[in-house]
Specification:
Chain lengths: 316, 348, 340
């Protein structure tokens, strides 16, 4: 009855609520956040529509002209206008490889974050809600993993996965494997954040009320507690996407990631690095610049979100 | 104190146990010592015999105990690539990494505290804003990319001549924007032998020049983290009641900042510093790869590429041991600095 | 001339939507050895008043006008360096929550010695001796061992004793105590308050006591101010105000005391709640909650709605209320007529 009465009163729609929110207000006042969002949107757009935007298909061997290798970008003498950003050592159009590489990097970045969120959120909920031994075990595991640092774990797991599957198979299934590797390496961040907010939420009265009403603990966790932990999850997700993209780039740079035939931004940087001594800096530094811009705008948006939503994040 | 140590040692032991089980599982599943010992030509029957002789058919648990016993004596077998005991290989590569880490730590400690404290004391000053801006950019650049850019700028050099070179101002601007290069960027040069397997880059100016670019690269990723952390903690501490009370007591600002606030700021920084040691080791792998710095990271990557399982396992165990020792030390330091930790249990 | 004189103190907080006025036209004075109580609900500006005396209000707060004269010296607008001579030395403070007031990583001794050394050129040994003496005065058991202990090793009541000892270290002229017992267990509140009162009397130290506890004010102080929404609305001798409050708000406060309610009946309360400082009602800030806003004809008094009331003298007290002003005028007229 009461609920009916509530819904009869005028509840502003989602859009109206968003329009009046503090989130939008502070966004309108923050130039850095606006520029970051625009750049981020452009990068996403470029990645999604890479097959249509790219002048050439870098995966198509027939389109590659080995004679046109190591051509500089357009503003340097000796450039070929056909290749706006120049070409790499194998004669692939650099702009096209960057667009496709951006796509791969973003797919792995978001995929890995989904993976780690799935693992981390469920472990965090379990640890926070069930407590006791489960909590002690999971958090000890998270502690050990974090003391090794997520990148270190990713490198070790990556090395092992590569050793188990062998180089050729690894290259073939590189995208899902990298998502798995980075997901396994980074789940503790989510688990600790979620656990911390579950512990905070759990002590509140509405959870007691739900339990008194006889709701099952799983229902309490997912229907009642989880929605209240969303804001910190949202904030760390932005940082984690940036981290995952950097991790992928690092793994690829070490030869534990995407193969050069199907490059991400990281493997583009790696393959270009060999030619930096011969003066062809653009093969490595232009993809590098794109990577930095991508990570930077995500970090700036994350910083802004953290300032606005200001959840109490787990330190460390 | 004793109780604290025992507790910490137990924890350290537990972590080492987990690492050793993982390492052993890797060795057991991926390494085939027979292959390494006898090569392809030996018939299967002989292999089986050897396998039995070496105890490779024993249950997992028995084999693990044997592995652990050897590991306790730092005996992890022979490296495939180097054909010598893996511990010897590690000992040869360890000093290079330790020197790089030492130089980096020096940079971080030297710069992070003053910059972090300054930008917390004067959060609105343009210099603080500049530091914070640079540090978020620093966090966003992967360490290997910083390394590459540094090589391009200071080892190879950049000729940037957008201004007319025949005018005095143009030549000056061009000169300002271009870099000479010439900094050493590959390997360690000719380090001076100290003793055992330890060669040092610290003893001569020439040796130090080899350290400059790798150490700056490695610091570039860690420094912003610490600056941001110190600033955030310090800002929080400066809001506290006890800082306000210290002001009401008429204490000088300098004493408030550097005695009252800094000491409280450093407590969480010490903890996070302990956790970041792991990150530092991971980044040494990347830095050493770019600069061909002959340390453990480069060696580890080599071992992965050539599937040198014993060397990989030894690396994991040794790095694990280093983590455990440093983390225990960090906890101990934390307990000594923080009076609310009784060194017998948890913080009050 | 009184030891401390505050005139028309005006404190503002510079916020994004413009300045918020936290204190307006605050005037009071304190003689040597006198004890003054400042009472009001939370948010009335009591603490801001206390902290602004030594210019310790946190940013974005600032003193926008008025004067604070201490022993002939003007404190408002004084540089930090000059104020530092006075803070902790001639005017010291006691904070609300002893659990948060002491620095957790410095020993009690360090926190006492540093205060002495900041104001006097003495050796650490002498400073420790003085500290020990003061710890004795606040009746801390085994004070020698306390000097080398850290705050977390002491209970809340002990810590507040230490803080009182620190406040007394340099034999100040005035102690400003901001709700010194609110955060303590009820059982030791009286103990701490008695100690503070006793030490102030013994050493002839002036006390500015900020509290919302009218009982404490009536026991400890000689004069009091009542604050509402950043203004002083009534001030005078404590006994007179408690026995015969003039301002409707003060009357409400006193009526709300549990001992004023008859057994079995509900406690009296003032309807409504204090307005936010950024959005004050027009005229008298109390008028929306005031039971006397209507005049004899049952119509709301126009002055209450439009005009901020000034002070009128009523007996030994000064009250800022239009209704009281009317009564006082009436009485004056009556008495004049009688004389005639």
């Amino acid at each position: 009855m009461r609920e009916n009465a509530m819904s009869d009163t005028i509840v502003p729609g989602r859009w109206a609520r968003f329009r009046d929110s503090y989130l939008l207000y502070s966004f309108k006042r923050d130039l850095v956040a606006q520029v970051s969002l625009v750049l981020f949107a452009m990068l996403i757009f470029a990645a999604v529509f890479a097959p249509w935007l790219a002048p050439a298909n870098p995966y198509d061997l027939a389109q590659i002209d080995i004679m046109a290798s190591e051509l500089p970008p357009f503003w340097i003498d000796g450039a070929d206008p056909q290749y706006l950003m120049g070409t790499d050592a194998q004669g692939r159009d650099l702009l096209s490889t960057i667009l496709y590489g951006l796509r791969v990097s973003l797919i792995i970045g978001f995929g890995a974050v989904l993976m780690q969120a799935a693992i981390g959120v469920s472990f965090g909920l379990m640890a926070g809600y069930l407590g006791g031994r489960v909590d002690a075990f999971l958090m000890r595991l998270a502690d050990i993993q974090l003391s090794f640092s997520t990148l270190m774990v990713a490198i070790i797991v990556g090395a092992l996965v590569k050793a188990i599957f062998g180089g050729a198979t690894f290259s073939e299934y590189a995208v899902p494997l990298l998502v798995l590797i980075i997901g396994l390496a980074e789940w503790p961040q989510y688990a600790r954040t979620v656990r911390a907010s579950v512990l905070a939420e759990r002590s509140k009265e509405y959870v007691d009320a739900a339990r008194v009403m006889g709701l099952k603990s799983r229902r309490i966790m997912f229907r009642h507690i989880l929605p209240n932990t969303l804001s910190p999850i949202f904030v760390i997700s932005t940082v984690q996407v940036a981290n995952a993209i950097i991790s992928e780039a690092a793994l690829s740079f070490l030869g534990l990631g995407m193969p050069e035939t199907h490059p991400s931004l990281g493997s583009l940087i790696k393959s270009g690095f060999d030619y930096i001594q011969s003066g062809s800096w653009w093969i490595t530094l232009i993809p590098g610049a794109v990577l930095v811009i991508l990570v930077l705008v995500i970090n700036l948006l994350g910083d802004w979100l953290r300032d606005v939503l200001n959840p109490r994040l787990y330190k460390g | 104190m004793i109780a604290f140590l025992i507790k910490r040692l137990f924890h350290a032991f537990l972590v080492m146990f987990v690492i050793s089980v993982i390492s052993f599982a890797i060795q057991d599943n991926l390494g085939d010592p027979i292959q390494q010992m006898v090569g392809q030509s030996v018939p299967e029957s002989e292999r089986a015999e050897l396998r039995e002789e070496l105890g490779l058919n024993d249950p997992f648990f028995v084999q693990y105990l044997r592995f652990a016993k050897n590991a306790a004596q730092f005996d992890f077998g022979y490296s495939y690539i180097f054909n010598e005991p893996t511990t010897q290989v590690i000992m040869r590569h360890l000093p290079a990494t330790l020197e790089l880490v030492a130089a980096t730590t020096f940079l971080i400690v030297l710069l992070s505290v003053p910059i972090g404290v300054y930008s917390a004391i004067k959060p609105r000053a343009w210099l603080s804003r500049a530091f914070m801006g640079v540090s978020i950019v620093g966090i966003s650049i992967p360490v290997f990319l910083t390394a590459i850019v540094l090589i391009q700028l200071f080892a190879i050099g950049v000729d940037f001549t957008p201004f007319p070179a025949d005018t005095a101002w143009g030549a000056w601007l061009n000169d300002l924007l271009s870099t000479d290069g010439g900094m050493p960027a590959y390997g360690r040069g000719n380090p001076v032998h100290v003793f055992g397997t330890w060669d040092t880059n610290f003893s001569s100016l020439e040796g130090l020049t080899y350290l400059v670019l790798p150490a700056i690269s490695l610091a570039s990723i860690m420094l912003p983290l610490f600056i941001r952390l110190i600033r955030a903690e310090m800002l929080e501490v400066l809001q506290s009641e006890y800082v306000k009370f210290a002001r009401a007591k008429g204490i000088s600002l300098r004493r408030i900042y550097f005695v009252h606030a800094l000491k409280n700021t450093m407590l969480p920084v010490i903890t996070v510093g302990g956790v970041q040691i792991g990150t530092l080791v991971a980044y040494t792998i990347l830095t050493e790869t770019v600069f061909q710095w002959p340390g453990m990271g480069l060696m580890f990557l080599d071992a992965i590429e050539r599937s040198d399982i014993p060397l990989i396992v030894t690396y994991l165990m040794i790095v694990g041991l280093i983590f455990v020792i440093t983390n225990t030390l960090v906890d101990l330091i934390y307990g000594l600095v923080n009076p609310t930790v009784k060194l017998t249990g948890k913080p009050a | 001339m009184a030891l401390l004189e505050v005139n028309n103190l005006d404190v503002r907080f510079a916020l994004r939507g413009g300045d918020v006025r936290a204190l307006r036209d605050v005037c009071f004075s304190l003689d040597r050895g006198e004890r003054l109580g400042i009472v009001g609900e939370s948010g009335a500006g009591k603490s801001v008043a206390a902290f602004s005396l030594l210019n310790l209000i946190a940013k974005p707060g600032y003193i926008a006008g008025g004067s604070i004269t201490f022993d002939g010296e003007e404190l408002s607008g004084m540089k930090d360096r000059g104020l530092r001579r006075i803070r902790g030395n001639r005017i010291s403070m006691i904070f609300q929550d002893p659990m948060m007031t002491l620095n957790p990583v410095l020993s009690i001794g360090e926190q006492m010695v540093e205060c002495l050394k900041a104001h006097r050129r003495i050796s650490t040994r002498e400073a420790r001796a003085i500290s020990l003496h003061k710890l004795n005065q606040v009746q801390i058991p085994s004070p020698e061992t306390r000097l080398d202990q850290y705050p977390h090793e002491l209970s809340g009541g002990m810590r507040q004793r230490v803080i009182i000892a620190i406040a007394l270290l340099l034999d100040p002229d005035i102690i400003i105590a901001d709700e010194p017992t609110t955060a303590l267990d009820v059982t030791i509140q009286a103990e701490i308050m008695d100690l503070l009162l006793e030490l102030c009397e013994k050493h002839n130290v002036g006390l500015v006591l900020i509290t919302h506890d009218l009982g404490v004010v009536s026991q400890v102080t000689q004069r009091m101010l009542v604050m509402y929404a950043g203004r002083v609305i009534e001030q005078g001798p404590t006994r007179e105000i408690i026995n015969d409050p003039q301002h409707p708000y003060t009357q409400g406060l006193i009526n709300a005391l549990p001992q004023m309610a008859t057994p079995g009946s509900r406690l009296n309360q003032i309807p409504g709640s204090m307005p936010s400082l950024s959005n004050l009602p027009s005229g008298c800030a109390f008028h929306p909650r005031c039971g006397f806003v209507n005049d004899a004809n049952g119509e709301p008094r126009k002055a209450c709605l439009d005009k901020v009331p000034g002070f009128v003298d009523s007996g030994n007290c000064r009250v800022a209320c239009h209704m009281v002003a009317e009564l006082v005028n009436q009485q004056q007229r009556d008495s004049r007529e009688e004389i005639l």
